[in-house]
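Query form — protein DUF2254 domain-containing protein

QUESTION: What is the three-dimensional structure of this chain?
INPUT:
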Amino acid sequence: MPPAAESGTTDAPADIRRPNRGSGFLGRIRARRQALRDAVRTRLWPVPAAAVVSGIIAGILLPELDARLDPELPAAVTGYLFGGGADAARTILGTIATALMTVTSLTFSLTLVTLQLASSQYSPRLLRTFSGDPFVQRTLALFLGTFTYALTVLRTVRNADGGVNEFVPQFSVTTAYALGVACVLALVLFLGHLVRQIRIETMLDQVATEAIATGRRLLRPLDPDDHPAPPPPPPPNPRITPAAGSGFLVEIDEQRLLDIAVECDTVLWVQHTVGDTVVAGTPAVLRPDSGADIDHRIAGALHHGRERTTTQDLGYGIRQLTDVVVRALSPGINDPTTAVHGLNSAATVLRAFADRHCGPVTLVDHHGTARVHLPRPDLPELLDTACTQPRYYGAHDPLVLHGLLSLLGALGHTCRREGDRAAVREQLSRVGLTIADQEFDDGARRGLEEHLAVVAATALR
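ANSWER: The C-alpha cells for DUF2254 domain-containing protein are given below.
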C-alpha cells in the first residue's frame, strides 16, 4: 500500500477530488485551453495583430469581388456605392489611412498614460486588468485593421493608361468609408470608456469579479455532510523533485501529476501553492524513494511564469485588492476612502470563497487511493492577507478600522466552518488590540469599540 494510506495529522483538512471517467485527456485540454485563453486575454497585442491580418486578407479579397461584380448593377445598389474615379478613390483611402495612424497613436498614448496612472496611483499588479480590457483591445484592432485594409485596397486602384482600363473597387472603397465612420464612433466610445476605467470603483469591481470567477471555477461548493480527512504527512526520507525553473508557480497540471502517480504507483506531495515564488533547483515535489527516475516528468507538470495569473491562483485577487488598500494608505497618497473601498471589495471576494471548499486538495485514483496532495490557501490564510497589512498601515485612521470591522462582520455572517469562524474571531481580537493601542479621541474610540462589540455579538453567533 502506498504511504498515502497511512494516517497523519495536519491543521487543514484536504478536499478529496475523485477523477471522472474519461476526464484525463479532456480535463487536460480544458486546463490548457483556459491557460491559453488567459494568456491571450491579458496581452494587448493578439487581438490587434489578428485584425491586421484580417485587414490584409479583406483588402485582397474584396477588390477581387469588385472585379467580378456585374458592371450593370441596379441603380438602387450603385446609389450607395462609391461613384468617383481612381484619383478620388486614392484620396479617400489615403486620408483614411493617414488619419487612422494618427488616431491609433493617440489611442496608444492614452492607454499608456492610463497604465502608468494605475501603476503609480493604485498598484502595478492592476496592469493585467487594463491590458486585458477587451474594449481597448477591440478598439485598437478596429483602428489597425481599417488602416491595413485601406492601404491594401489602395494598391489595387488603377487609372486608365494605354491598354490598361481604369479600375476603381467601388464596393471596397465604400467598405473603407464605412470602417472609417466606425472608427470615429469607436474613438468617442473609447474616450468615455477610458474615463470610466480609471475610476477606482471600476477597477476594484473588475478585480473582485475576476477573483470570484476563479474561485467558482476551481472550488466546489461546501457540502454540510462532507467531512474531509486530513492529508497524510510526506514520508520521512522522501525523494525530492527540484523545480525546473524560477519565477511564480502559475499553473499545476493536476491530471498529469495524477497520471504519473498512478502509473508509477507512488504518491506526490507538491510543496508550493500556485502563486508562490519558486527558485530553480529548490524542492518542488516530494515522493517515496522508489528508484524510478520520473523527476523530469513531474517537473514538467509545474508551469512557471514571470507574473501571477488568475488561471489557478486563488489568492491573486485578494493580493491585488490589498495592494490597492496599502497604496492608498501610503503617506504620498493618503486616501483612506479608497482603502475602505478596497476592503469592501475584499469582503465580497471572501464571502464568495466562504461558501466553497478552500484549502489543500487531495487527488485520488479510481480505487480511492490518495495519489497527489496539492496545497491551496484556505480561508484563514486569505483573510490574513486581506487584514494584516491594512490593519498595520491604517492603525491610526478610524475610518480604515471601521472598514476592517465591516469586512469581518460581513464574513462572520457567511462562514459555516468552525475553523473559518475562529479565524474571524482572531482577526477581531487583533483589531481590538490595535484600537486599544491608539490615541483616539473619546468619540472615535467609543464608536470603534461599539462597532467591535456589535460585530462580535452578531456576526459570530
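ADDITIONAL NOTE: Residues 86-121 form the longest helix (36 residues).
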